[in-house]
Amino acid sequence: RPHETINVQGASFVRDSKTNVPASIISKLPQRLYMKPEHPLGILRTLIEGHFPNFTTANSLSPIVSVFKNFDELGFPHDHPGRNITDSYYINSTTMLRTHTSAHEIEVFRQGADKWLLTADVYRRDEIDASHYPVFHQVEGARTFDVSEDMDALAEENARLAEKLASANIIIEDDTQVTPQNPYQNVHDPAHAALVTENLKSSLNSLILSIFGARANATKEEPLRVRWIEAYFPFTSPSYEVEVFFQGKWLEILGCGVVKQATLDQSGIENRIGWAFGLGLERIAMVLFSIPDIRLFWSEDPRFLEQFTPGKITAFRSYSRFPPCYKDVSFWTSDQVKFHENDLCDVVRDTAGDLVEDVKLIDEFVNPKTQRKSLCYRINYRSMDRCAQQRPSSYPYRGPPEPDLLLYSYRSLS
Ligand code: PHE
User: Fold this and answer.
1) How far, in Å, CA of 414 to CA of 404, rounded?
2) More reliable by pLDDT, 32 or 320
3) Distance from the CA of 150 to the center of ligand 1, in angstroms?
4) Ligand 1 contact, 259 CB (< 6 A)
5) Per-residue confidence at 394, pLDDT binned at 50, 70, 90?
6) What proportion of the chain, given as a percentage, has pLDDT over 90?
7) What is the pLDDT of residue 395?
8) Distance, CA of 4 to CA of 86 (rounded, Å)
9) Smallest Cα–Cα separation from 114: which of 150, 162, 85?
10) Could you name the CATH architecture of 16-298?
11) Spatial CA neighbour of 83 closest among 131, 125, 118
């Protein structure tokens, strides 16, 4: 009985009360944008891999993982908000689409590499706007050291890295401290934990320097500003987030920390201590390539794809900015079924695909007699690559549309 099972990438899963993956999401699984050498996400992945030349890479791990692997094994508590069906995509109660690349940490550590990177597509239910998309990409990186053999070499390497950063055009703002809220782990010698933390920080500062320095028109005089902030992740301690100051704004780009020893123990490398980070590719690619809308990464329009060259960071040139066109939708909510905005957003995406730029709650009303509540949402349509009504008949694109066709499209929008 087909409706009792759900087919994902050729495998069949039994549906249950947690199943919530829509077809529009399933269709993203085979795309693997991060592996396309001429795609901004592929270019950025290659740049990062090039910065860590001795790291092994894993780029073909399936996005379908057990809930255990995504959450439990990494120490996520049972009531962690990330587990909610409003926040994550479940194939069923035991299987889901990974929400982060950390889901693979233990299996990659188990394979024995002491320095590795893994890039993958990750899935989170979210609102709809220019910088959020339910599929995005992360690079996870980690490095471990033998506690009894590698510590002296690590101290020397840290000194070398510090010297290099001191002479680079970068300002590192770091007021973080090791506190009881963000401690070294009890099982670690504090001197070892300090060396690993220092190595984590300088390795990532130099990564950021080479990513942002790679921008073709990077201003040489302006120093790059990087800020370290204390953070919390269930599988690292101490933990940090890193922000980069870019075009007047602080941009959060990664989470990281010293890997919880329980994670390394489970991976069969009890004698080692190490760090890990997880970095989001889209945010960085949007600023590096001046890409104004996250939906563009999924565009198949040659006017998007043909702008980029493998190995190069170049500014994106907009080829179409058509006027938005909104429709308001209002509906009653029910007392029995709790409404969550992400449910609406999945319906919108499943129906309208990437034509929708954002979805916003614009009005709420409670009927004073019945106490029933109604919500009004504004669905803002704007295609990234075509007019609202018609494609130029010459598609695939061979030049601008005829003027009267453009005029027609604009007029029919207003
Ligand atoms: N997985 C974390 C996230 O997605 C990032 C992270 C990776 C944090 C590795 C610490 C270590 O937010």
Assistant:
1) 16
2) 32
3) 25
4) no
5) very low
6) 79
7) 47
8) 21
9) 150
10) 2-Layer Sandwich (3.30)
11) 125
CATH number of 320-413: 3.30.70.380
Number of Cβ atoms within 10 Å of the Cβ of 355: 18
ipTM: 0.99
Ligand 1 within 6 A of CB of 238: no
- State in Å: Cα 79 to ligand 1 middle: 18
Place of tokens 């916003």: 360
Determine the atom of ligand 1 nearest the C-alpha atom of 142: 9
Q: Could you tell me the two tokens for 133?
A: 């998309």
User: Separation of 154 CA from ligand 1 center, angstroms?
Assistant: 23
Burial class of 252 by CB neighbour count within 10 A (0 to 12, 13 to 18, 19+): middle
Q: Examine the pLDDT at 389 and tell me if it is beyond 80.
A: no
Instruction: Kindly tell me if the per-residue pLDDT of 182 is higher than 50.
Output: yes
Q: Is 311 left (phi over 0), alpha (psi -120 to 50) or beta?
A: left
Burial 377-392 (b: 16+ CB within 10 A, else e): bebbbbbbbbbbeeeb
**CATH 3.30.930.10 residue window(s) in the chain:** 16-298
Residues of the chain with CATH 3.30.70.380: 320-413
The span from the first CA to the last CA of the chain, in angstroms, equals 47
Gyration radius from the chain CA atoms: 24
Give me the helix-helix angle, 281-288 and 190-213, nearest 10°.
40
pLDDT digits (tens, 9 = 90+) for 257-269: 999 999 999 999 9
